[in-house]
Amino acid sequence: MSMKGVLLVDFLERGTTINSERYCQTLQNLRRTIQNKRRGKLRMKILLFHDNARPHTANRTHEVLESFKWELFPHPPYSPDLAPSDYHLFPTMKKWLATQHFDDDLQLQEEVTNWLKMQSGKFYEEGIAKLINRYQKCLILNGDYVEK
């Protein structure tokens, strides 16, 4: 998720979990997507904000990010409420999903992708803007869990 919207949608196959190898593949896909959709952006500073999940902290992941020259925005441990997808994107999507019916996984994936594309730039800007306030609270609490 960026200030302008979702750059890449990547669904895992049913029954699979994310690991460092898969996450690195997704990062490489993201880099290609930025190169294609946001021309010239890769020459600028890329600031990536992700949590401290194992695939994100693995040595291989760090190697990939270093090769891209992307900067990591620090994510304090034990602060799950700092991910804009968790506090902004998913709750809104969940409300929409509650009113939908899908015949199969493929239809679900197509409709979710369309829903993400239909959200306004302002919607994504609001989610990122909320991060500033949440991050400041987290820093004031020395990285402790931030309540809603």
TrEMBL record:
GO terms for MF: nucleic acid binding
Pfam family, one: Transposase_1
Protein known as: Tc1-like transposase DDE domain-containing protein
Organism in which the protein naturally occurs: Anolis carolinensis
